[in-house]
Amino acid sequence: MQRYSFIAFAGLMLVLPLLPVPDFWITQSNYIGLYAIVALGLVLLTGVSGLTSFGQAAFVGIGAYAAAYMATKMDVSPWIALFVGLALAVVAALIVGAVTLRMSGHYLPLATIAWGLALYYTMGNMEWLGKYDGLLGVPTLKLFGWDLGSGRRLHGLIWIIALLAALATTNLLDSRTGRAIRSLKSGSTMAEAMGISTFRYKLTVFVIAAALAAVSGWLFAHFQRTVNPTPFSLAKGIEYLFMAVLGGVGHVWGAFLGSAVVRIVEDQLQVLLPKLIGTSGNFEVIVFGIVLVVVLKYAPDGLWTFVTRWLPAPRRVRDWAGAERLPRRDKPAAGELMLEVDAVRKEFGGLVAVNDVSFRISSGDIVGLIGPNGAGKSTTFNLITGVLGLTRGQVRFRGQRIDGMASRHIARLGMSRTFQHVKMIPEMTVLENVALGGYLRTGSGVARAMLRLDRAEERRLFAEAEAQLARIGMADKMHELAGNLALGPQRLMEIARALCTDPALLLLDEPAAGLRHKEKQALAAVLRQLKGEGMSILLVEHDMDFVMGLTDRIVVMEFGTRLIEGTPAEVQASPVVRAAYLGTEH
Question: Is the overall model pTM greater than 0.85, yes or no?
Answer without folding.
Answer: yes
